[in-house]
Amino acid sequence: TNLVTVLFHLGEMATITQSLDEDTFQVLGEELGYKVQIVSPEDEDRELLESFDIDLEAEEEAEDAEDKQPRPPVVTVMGHVDHGKTKLLDAIRSANVASKEAGGITQHIGAYQVAVEHDDEERRITFLDTPGHEAFTAMRARGAKATDVAILVVAADDGVMPQTIEALNHAQAADVPIVVAVNKVDKDGANPAKVMQQLTEYNLVSEEYGGDTMFVPISALKGTGIEDLLEAVLLTTDAALDLKANPDKSARGIAIEAKLDKGRGAVASVLIESGTLRQGDAIVCGTAFGRVRAMFDENGEQLDEAGPSRPVQVLGLSSVPRAGDTFLSTDDDRTARQIAEKRDAIERNAAQARGRKRISLEDFAKALEEGKVDMLNLILKGDVSGAVEALEDSLLKIDVGDEVDLRIIHRGVGAITENDINLATVDNAIVIGFNVRPEAKARDAAEREGVDVRYYSVIYDAIDDIENSLKGMLKPTF
Ligand code: GDP
Fold first, then answer.
1. Is the separation of the CB atoms in 108 and 284 below 8 Å?
2. What interface predicted TM-score (ipTM) does this complex get?
């Protein structure tokens, strides 16, 4: 028999070229006497590496705590447009060049490191110098976590704005501690106290108000408060995180940006997460492979080696990797090449099998009934802030009992953006649009990623649907 017939008997109308969702594959497999196992891309890659005797998790576990040494925090600067992210990154960099001896010209390699005197000790901090949360979210959507701490820049004359909220939502969803830089305090009309007060609403409560978020007044333009800000980053790091990595092993890390250079070929900036990368090492980064022909730091200085939290520009890859691609050095060239080639083949297959299914409200109701989930993540977008607030209030008032948690991970005014979909993808959330439509890019992304986006124009309809699904009784809509 052919598959279409089998599917038809299962109540599924399909043509031979149509792609099916995971559930259907499961049922189809069972019908044909196979057990269908659906592997995530991460699992698949882990298995691939294991077939080359590389087991990153086992490696991590087997490591002695003594082998690990403190590593610098990696920091991303986020905030609303024009609040001074770029200026701040420039100010930090020019106030504090890590290698003072370097006579080199500063290079943009996607990140830089600064040295700070802290408790009579020289400490370092790595800054990703592509501001904004788009890069951050894109990397997260690819499973990479490149940031330890976020600096949220808020202009004191403007206060909390939509992208401020978006940025802090992203950081909070990723469990990244936040330091608030209250910028432009040099300006007339600057009101740092207001920023502090506004942010308490988002669980960013300053120490003065009894919270544990550090707020630092700065002027990126005048270069004031920068030292205090760096100090606050270190204090927050030490309070919230225990950042350690073993420098004495082969290098592991992540690509932060890459490009094709006419003269030098593929140029990739990578952030070393653990181990040490040396010139001449065989490496594989995503589907690119090669040998480290040369390495440079942010001052254009050539390096022989680079340890944890160090950003370096690497020459010698066969092709241009993507931001967020993981990299590792391998024992030999052949292994690197084979891993890259296998990944390439896997990606091609995956590209054909698009339409990965994320959770929908119906799935959620079903899974809830079977006791498989206990958390519903929602993203709310509406045309006016009053409506969004009303919706949020009513949703939070739904009596969901003890078994299930309703979390609103992001809310905002305006069209549904690609960023909303990215966030929904990462946190398996459902997007609720109230009197708004998606941007074209967002619609494409939602379709590609299988994110459930629901539109309402009556608040009660939205509440009803969510309430019903929380009670496990939402009827599928077709
Ligand atoms: P971004 O969009 O967040 O990267 O913001 P920019 O760094 O490009 O800054 C936006 C504008 O605000 C620029 O015209 C900056 O010169 C100005 N700006 C940034 N920081 C300060 C500051 O501390 N004080 C004042 N007065 N202006 C600032």
1. no
2. 0.99
